[in-house]
């Protein structure tokens, strides 16, 4: 492996890791506020990518502009999903049943996408699609940089929202200790709904970023949800910083392994990490919440 | 060490004791080097202010939590860190703080499930043998809910569920029973009923260890009281002696 | 319930025990009738099937029933929901195919051996996966099938990779319809074996222990049930039968592709079928498999190769989870009970019984129940988290 190839893999890994981090943050939000493992997260990601592709190829709009519609739309869907569906589940079996319910939603979306736009692979063609820049001999596509920038900005915004707003405070309180949050007057139900919406908004952002330089097809979401779930378990369920670190580490790992092993085998790093985590530390490496219970 | 029981006239035998038992949760020493000796054949009570580590101690003894250091000895065997089911087989039965039953199984099955299980052959045995059903029914009669044997356990009132949990524990023929707040959330007349059940069973030779907040119950029931504070016993003795111990007042009032 | 045993309680029970015994007898009769009907249907179906397509659809549905029933050894008894059981199906199918291809074993010897291989693989995987519960277990199960998909796609030299694997037919001389017919009976026999085992476990001490794990694992452990070993045994049984169903499928279908064998969709069908029928019931997965299987075939006929069956599957699964988590069989039973002659619920019955007992018993029992009313009122609030679901529905 030459130095520039190594550097290129490293950079690509970081860029990919940024997207993973954003999406894993979304998954962590659902889990944090509702103890829900949202299997449909990646399906919404693919849906957003399809919407961006549709807007670009049929309506001629730049995919980034679709964010204006998809982010609020997904936010609303998320709130409604929590209010109308997740809340209906019995508390005793919430975590388990929510897995099945969101799994069902994932199937539904996958089927719908395939039904409306067909099962063939799609890809956005932009004027700047083939542009790339060179950094110390490593060639990095501009669209990848844009995608990373979008993910990084969104993560930063999410961080600021969580740390410096009253809503963020309520959200963090709800994640850490729902009963205590209720006692100090936080309407945890409402906060949970908004947290859910926020989580789904990350799927809209991530999907748009994804659409810039990925080939998309309806069943693509399975290739995302597996690694994402591995990331949140490795990062410690419920911990957003943990998820972000795990995302970067595993993203870089995957990218580096791709060179000697090829794409298929490189993906297994996530599952290896997942099993190792469960064997060694069921509560995850970075966060504090016990995976065992959920 | 800790205050010696002044009831020294009667010889004290112990089948269950801990030495230096310690459990740390994220820097907090929930149980901190606890040396506790329970009196065999007696009703032992474990009291102490909230957060004094009683329940963690309880869980360490019954194997639900693995202690960080220290030993638990039962009938001269080291049972530290053994799986809960192995500790149950050794002869320690326990109840849970917020009573736990199997909500969607029948009352009778809730008791039958607790039958002693040893070896592979017991796996293949039918779930309801005549002898076991008879025994389970007798236990239900004993706790007074035999008329409900075919109801689903979740349809029972909370108090009835507590009695059911006790019947389940008894099914395993434990010689030591640990009860975590048996009177919690239960109305006074039922507390009386539970209290007399404990006394009856104790008279038949069962050792009890009770974690309880209801001081009236503790003082009227127990032979030996151990007071916990900050993860270790600070005083022990007969109810009278403990009640007049200044350290106990201090722990409770936080002087 | 033989023998009202304990002399203490006998007088009261004599009057009240009639209803449960009656119910269990009626249930027994219903089960026997259902079994006879099922046997007759299975027996005449191949002859009655108008064409080879219907016959092959019958084989597919039976294979679904096998997978859903084998899934239920784990999902139904212990409550551990595995969405990745397709992994075992694929391992059984590929195991059979590879053993025939590389070792030249007779088809059914290879099939049985593949079952053994699956059982052996289950042990380490089970020990790892069963360290976690609930949703984490679901995640692990999904991850497991995704890994195997990657491995079987990537390891082309051994598994045939994306090109698939052709499994030689066990009966090369048979005409296609007869081939279907033979496998229809083979799948039926496999299913029957599973149902008998399920029934046996259900009434064993092992089975009641598993059900206790489903209800409250910590409590079960505290009562002396070695939960880890119990779960592991259930997992091995479940995985092995799923593998055997997969191997049978490989011998029948003759062509394997990682995409279909190690698909999340197949695993989700198992969950959907079992939940739809009712995971607490012997015949629940079978009922679910018949409904979902027929539905899938109809969808494929109506909508061809579109992805619409995914929409329908997702919708159905969501509806089951939201409105019928206990499945069709309990819902039907509740319906029958409601319209049946004796409409009293358990609670009402016990309340009546209680009053009677209190009157009759006078002192001994009465002291226990004197405070019941107060206690109900006092404690019911804490109890509010566990209202009876039946009443709500």
From TrEMBL, chain A:
<keyword id="KW-0813">Transport</keyword>
<dbReference type="GO" id="GO:0005886">
    <property type="term" value="C:plasma membrane"/>
</dbReference>
<feature type="transmembrane region" description="Helical">
    <location>
        <begin position="36"/>
        <end position="55"/>
    </location>
</feature>
<keyword id="KW-0472">Membrane</keyword>
<feature type="transmembrane region" description="Helical">
    <location>
        <begin position="61"/>
        <end position="81"/>
    </location>
</feature>
<dbReference type="GO" id="GO:0006865">
    <property type="term" value="P:amino acid transport"/>
</dbReference>
<protein>
    <submittedName>
        <fullName>High-affinity branched-chain amino acid transport system permease protein LivH</fullName>
    </submittedName>
</protein>
<dbReference type="InterPro" id="IPR052157">
    <property type="entry name" value="BCAA_transport_permease"/>
</dbReference>
<keyword id="KW-1003">Cell membrane</keyword>
<keyword id="KW-1133">Transmembrane helix</keyword>
<feature type="transmembrane region" description="Helical">
    <location>
        <begin position="137"/>
        <end position="162"/>
    </location>
</feature>
<feature type="transmembrane region" description="Helical">
    <location>
        <begin position="259"/>
        <end position="280"/>
    </location>
</feature>
<feature type="transmembrane region" description="Helical">
    <location>
        <begin position="191"/>
        <end position="212"/>
    </location>
</feature>
<keyword id="KW-0812">Transmembrane</keyword>
<keyword id="KW-0029">Amino-acid transport</keyword>
Automatic annotation (TrEMBL), chain B:
<dbReference type="InterPro" id="IPR017871">
    <property type="entry name" value="ABC_transporter-like_CS"/>
</dbReference>
<dbReference type="InterPro" id="IPR051120">
    <property type="entry name" value="ABC_AA/LPS_Transport"/>
</dbReference>
<dbReference type="InterPro" id="IPR032823">
    <property type="entry name" value="BCA_ABC_TP_C"/>
</dbReference>
<dbReference type="GO" id="GO:0005886">
    <property type="term" value="C:plasma membrane"/>
</dbReference>
<dbReference type="InterPro" id="IPR003439">
    <property type="entry name" value="ABC_transporter-like_ATP-bd"/>
</dbReference>
<dbReference type="Pfam" id="PF12399">
    <property type="entry name" value="BCA_ABC_TP_C"/>
</dbReference>
<dbReference type="GO" id="GO:0005524">
    <property type="term" value="F:ATP binding"/>
</dbReference>
<feature type="domain" description="ABC transporter">
    <location>
        <begin position="16"/>
        <end position="255"/>
    </location>
</feature>
<keyword id="KW-0547">Nucleotide-binding</keyword>
<dbReference type="Pfam" id="PF00005">
    <property type="entry name" value="ABC_tran"/>
</dbReference>
<protein>
    <submittedName>
        <fullName>Branched-chain amino acid transport ATP-binding protein LivG</fullName>
    </submittedName>
</protein>
<dbReference type="InterPro" id="IPR027417">
    <property type="entry name" value="P-loop_NTPase"/>
</dbReference>
<dbReference type="GO" id="GO:0016887">
    <property type="term" value="F:ATP hydrolysis activity"/>
</dbReference>
<keyword id="KW-0067">ATP-binding</keyword>
<keyword id="KW-0813">Transport</keyword>
Automatic annotation (TrEMBL), chain C:
<feature type="region of interest" description="Disordered">
    <location>
        <begin position="372"/>
        <end position="393"/>
    </location>
</feature>
<keyword id="KW-1133">Transmembrane helix</keyword>
<dbReference type="GO" id="GO:0005524">
    <property type="term" value="F:ATP binding"/>
</dbReference>
<dbReference type="InterPro" id="IPR043428">
    <property type="entry name" value="LivM-like"/>
</dbReference>
<keyword id="KW-0812">Transmembrane</keyword>
<dbReference type="GO" id="GO:0015658">
    <property type="term" value="F:branched-chain amino acid transmembrane transporter activity"/>
</dbReference>
<keyword id="KW-0067">ATP-binding</keyword>
<feature type="transmembrane region" description="Helical">
    <location>
        <begin position="29"/>
        <end position="47"/>
    </location>
</feature>
<feature type="transmembrane region" description="Helical">
    <location>
        <begin position="178"/>
        <end position="201"/>
    </location>
</feature>
<keyword id="KW-0472">Membrane</keyword>
<feature type="transmembrane region" description="Helical">
    <location>
        <begin position="53"/>
        <end position="73"/>
    </location>
</feature>
<feature type="transmembrane region" description="Helical">
    <location>
        <begin position="308"/>
        <end position="329"/>
    </location>
</feature>
<feature type="transmembrane region" description="Helical">
    <location>
        <begin position="80"/>
        <end position="100"/>
    </location>
</feature>
<dbReference type="GO" id="GO:0005886">
    <property type="term" value="C:plasma membrane"/>
</dbReference>
<feature type="transmembrane region" description="Helical">
    <location>
        <begin position="283"/>
        <end position="302"/>
    </location>
</feature>
């Amino acid at each position: 492996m030459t130095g520039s190839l190594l550097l290129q893999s490293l950079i690509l890994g970081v860029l990919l890791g940024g997207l993973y981090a954003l999406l894993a943050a979304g998954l962590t939000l659902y889990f944090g506020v509702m103890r829900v493992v949202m299997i449909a997260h990646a399906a919404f990601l693919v849906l957003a990518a399809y919407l961006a592709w549709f807007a670009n190829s049929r309506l001629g709009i730049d995919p980034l502009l679709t964010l204006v519609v998809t982010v609020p739309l997904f936010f609303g869907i998320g709130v409604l999903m929590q209010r109308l569906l997740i809340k209906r589940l019995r508390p005793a079996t919430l975590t388990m049943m929510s897995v099945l319910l969101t799994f069902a939603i994932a199937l539904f979306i996958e089927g719908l996408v395939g039904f409306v736009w067909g099962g063939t692979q799609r890809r956005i063609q932009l004027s700047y699609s083939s542009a790339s820049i060179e950094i110390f001999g490593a060639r990095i596509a501009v669209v990848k940089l844009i995608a990373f920038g979008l993910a990084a900005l969104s993560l930063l915004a999410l961080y600021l929202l969580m740390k410096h707003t009253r809503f963020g405070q309520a959200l963090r309180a709800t994640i850490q200790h729902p009963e205590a949050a209720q006692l100090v007057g936080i309407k945890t139900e409402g906060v949970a709904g908004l947290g859910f919406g926020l989580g789904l908004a990350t799927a809209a952002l991530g999907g748009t970023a994804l659409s810039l330089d990925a080939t998309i097809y309806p069943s693509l979401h399975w290739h995302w949800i597996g690694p994402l779930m591995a990331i949140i378990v490795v990062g410690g369920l419920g911990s957003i910083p943990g998820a972000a670190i795990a995302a970067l580490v595993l993203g870089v790992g995957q990218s580096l392994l791709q060179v000697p092993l090829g794409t298929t085998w490189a993906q297994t790093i996530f599952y290896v990490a997942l099993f190792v985590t469960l064997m060694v530390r069921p509560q995850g490496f970075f966060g504090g919440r016990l995976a065992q219970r959920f | 060490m800790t205050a010696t029981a002044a009831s020294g006239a009667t010889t004290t035998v112990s089948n269950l004791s801990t030495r230096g038992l310690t459990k740390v949760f994220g820097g907090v020493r929930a149980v901190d080097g606890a040396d506790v000796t329970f009196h065999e054949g007696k009703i032992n009570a474990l009291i102490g202010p909230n957060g004094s580590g009683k329940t963690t101690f309880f869980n360490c003894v019954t194997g639900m939590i693995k202690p960080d250091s220290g030993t638990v000895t039962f009938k001269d065997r080291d049972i530290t860190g053994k799986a809960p089911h192995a500790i149950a087989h050794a002869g320690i039965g326990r109840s849970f703080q917020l009573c736990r039953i199997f909500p969607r199984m029948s009352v009778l099955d809730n008791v039958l499930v607790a039958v002693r299980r040893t070896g592979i052959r017991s796996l293949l045995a039918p779930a309801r043998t005549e002898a076991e059903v008879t025994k389970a029914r007798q236990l239900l009669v004993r706790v007074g809910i035999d008329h409900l044997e075919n109801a689903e356990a979740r349809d029972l009132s909370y108090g009835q569920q507590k009695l059911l949990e006790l019947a389940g524990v008894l099914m395993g023929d434990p010689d030591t029973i640990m009860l975590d707040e048996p009177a919690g959330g239960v109305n006074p007349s039922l507390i009386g009923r539970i209290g007399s059940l404990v006394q009856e069973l104790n008279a038949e030779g069962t050792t009890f260890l009770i974690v309880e907040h209801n001081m009236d119950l503790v003082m009227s029931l127990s032979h030996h009281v151990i007071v916990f504070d900050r993860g270790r016993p600070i005083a022990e003795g007969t109810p009278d002696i403990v009640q007049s111990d200044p350290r106990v007042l201090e722990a409770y009032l936080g002087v | 319930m033989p023998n009202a045993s304990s002399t203490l309680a006998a007088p009261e029970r004599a009057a009240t025990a009639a209803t449960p015994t009656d119910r269990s007898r009626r249930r027994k009769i219903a089960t026997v009738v259902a079994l006879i009907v099922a046997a007759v249907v299975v027996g005449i179906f191949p002859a009655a099937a108008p064409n080879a397509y219907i016959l092959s659809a019958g084989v597919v549905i039976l294979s679904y029933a096998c997978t859903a029933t084998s899934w239920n050894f784990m999902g139904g008894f212990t409550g551990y929901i595995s969405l990745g059981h397709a992994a075992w199906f694929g391992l059984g199918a590929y195991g059979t195919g590879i053993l025939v291809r590389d070792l030249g074993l007779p088809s059914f010897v290879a099939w049985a051996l593949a079952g053994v291989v699956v059982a052996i693989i289950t042990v380490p995987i089970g020990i790892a996966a069963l360290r976690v519960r609930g949703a984490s277990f679901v995640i692990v199960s999904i991850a497991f099938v995704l890994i195997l998909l990657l491995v079987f796609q990537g390891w082309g030299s051994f598994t045939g990779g994306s090109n698939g694997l052709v499994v030689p037919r066990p009966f090369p001389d048979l005409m296609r319809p007869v081939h279907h017919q033979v496998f229809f009976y083979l799948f039926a026999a496999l299913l029957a074996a599973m149902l008998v085992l399920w029934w046996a476990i259900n009434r064993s001490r092992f089975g009641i222990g598993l059900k206790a794990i489903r209800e409250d694992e910590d409590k079960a452990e505290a009562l002396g049930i070695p939960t880890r070993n119990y779960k592991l045994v259930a997992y091995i049984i479940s995985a092995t039968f799923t593998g055997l169903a997969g191997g049978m499928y490989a011998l029948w279908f003759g062509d394997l592709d990682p995409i279909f064998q190690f698909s999340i969709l197949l695993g989700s069908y198992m969950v959907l079928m079992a939940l739809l029928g009712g995971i607490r019931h012997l015949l629940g997965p079978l009922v679910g498999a018949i409904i979902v299987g027929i539905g899938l075939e109809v969808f494929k006929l109506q909508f061809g190769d579109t992805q619409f069956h995914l929409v329908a599957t997702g919708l159905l699964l969501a509806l089951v989870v939201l409105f019928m988590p206990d499945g069709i069989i309990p819902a039907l039973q509740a319906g029958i009970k409601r319209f049946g002659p004796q409409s009293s619920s358990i609670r009402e019955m016990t309340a009546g019984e209680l009053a009677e007992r209190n009157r009759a018993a006078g002192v001994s029992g009465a002291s226990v129940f004197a405070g019941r009313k107060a206690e109900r009122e006092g404690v019911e609030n804490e109890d509010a988290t566990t209202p009876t679901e039946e009443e709500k529905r």
